[in-house]
Amino acid sequence: MITLAGFMIHAQGFAFRSRAVLLLNGGSSALNLILLPLAFGGFDPVQQVMAVGAIALVVFYAAVSAKMSRDTTEALDAARREAEAASQAKSAFLAMMSHELRTPMNGVLGMAHALKSSRLTGRQAEQVGMLIRSGDGLMAILNDILDISKIESGRLELETAPFDLVELGERVCDLWADAAGAKGLALSFVVDPMAPRHVTGDASRVRQILLNLVSNALKFTDAGEVRVTLAALPDARPGAARIAFSVTDTGLGISPDQQARLFDAFVQAEASTARRFGGTGLGLAICRQLAGLMGGEITVDSTPGQGSTFRLLIDLPLAAAPDAETAEPAPDAGLEGLRILVAEDNPINQAVARAILETLGARIDTAENGALALERLSEGAYDLVLMDVHMPVMDGMEALGRIRAGEAGDPTLPVIALTADAMSGQDLKFMARGFDAVQPKPIQPAELIAAILDLRAAQPRRVGGEHAA
To answer: Do residues 318 and 340 share a domain?
Structure first.
């Protein structure tokens, strides 16, 4: 009887999701529990009634427990589906908002960069610089929100490629040199002679972590210095190096209880921090999660009033140094003679591309959609196309497919995708569809020009659509 009761309880514990399976596994045990005392128990009538009553209670409990477990599981499944639907709705909302925000920001920052390159008075140049910094700050907040969402949804993908640690550290410090100088702070980069230089990993994410750590150090330091250190620690696995990037400042410092909450999303050390220094409190949370995705960690050592040291520890495979003799020389920075078609439905974005590229000597024509772009390409020869992915009438994907099919002249014509869909993170997908490069919005002039020059260097020079001799 105990064995049969165990079978029945086991059945209701593991087969409650399906009534048929529950009846098959537990029904025979329950029936035998009721019949055996009557047929073979040797009980007198009173004992039989008591035994059957007790067994009936066990069977009733097992049935009720199975129903409760089934109801709970169904409720959990429904809650999980609702949570997944909410997460998908959030992702879709963020993707839409990213696109809607990046489109006008492309006009704001693009025109600001174009204005910066024109003749300005000292006061005007200062005002344009403040406009660009404010726009970059807004984009940094937007990117932080998108990054944290992609990390939470598991959609953030890491790249793997060789890169130079020393060059990465130098570029990070160069980017923040002006900000440090404006506050009267010394910003230095120190390299341990034993540290390796060439490793393999996601350079953009390592750079993102360092940029955030240096930004925080400069933000919370009023006097003294910020020092970035690259070193190698022992106990690395074979073929890899345990890299330690340290960012040390002489700023406010952080108390132990504040350090415990420092890496939580939307949390800053003190309530007054956001009012005094700005920011969302997402930067360090993203840095820690990025480090974790790469198999590393971020630690902090700080004393209030004496400064802080944030340390990124990460194991990276060693890479061979590039061959200096085979390195390609940098191309000329000019775009003289290049005829470029900008397929973009937003007139402001058209004006931004025109302002950036005509300054360097390129000749620009525009098309409001993919169908018009195909007409322009059929009527005249171009050296390159900047193609917005989302356009009315015919989007960039369909237009690109027709270009590659030879419906508008040369099927190998270089085409650069312009996209505000930062949430998708599908640059590789665009490249697989036939784009030669991808430029996110807001357009960064230096990055766009570099992409054009890279394509120009990779293909024979064509002026006005004709191959140069």
So the answer is: no
- Structure token pair of residue 154: 């598991």
Strand pairing of 198-201 and 161-164?
Answer: antiparallel
What is residue 19's three-state secondary structure?
helix
385 and 251 assigned to the same domain: no
Peptide bond preceding 331 in cis form (omega within 30 of 0): no
Residue 49 lies in a domain: yes
242 strand-pairing partners:
233, 315
CATH no. for residue 402?
3.40.50.2300
Alpha-carbon gap, residue 437 to 455, rounded angstroms: 8
Domain of residue 429, residue span: 332-467
What letter does residue 367 receive in the DSSP assignment?
Answer: E
Report the alpha-carbon distance of residue 421 to residue 94 in Å, rounded.
10
| Domain match, 16 and 114 both | no
Residues 29 and 55 in one domain: yes
Q: How many CA atoms lie within 13 A of 54 on its CB side?
A: 11
Q: For residue range 135-184, list pLDDT tens digits in order.
A: 777 777 777 777 766 676 666 778 888 999 999 999 889 888 888 888 89
Task: Give the amino acid at 6.
Answer: G
- C-alpha distances in Å from residue 113, one per residue of 129, 337, 365: 9, 22, 21
| 40-44, 197-201, 331-335, 465-469: segment of lowest average pLDDT | 465-469
Q: Are 441 and 349 in contact (CB under 8 A)?
A: yes
The verdict on residue 425 lying in a domain is yes
**Token pair belonging to 365:** 């024509």
Are residues 46 and 170 both part of a single domain?
no
pLDDT at 462: 45
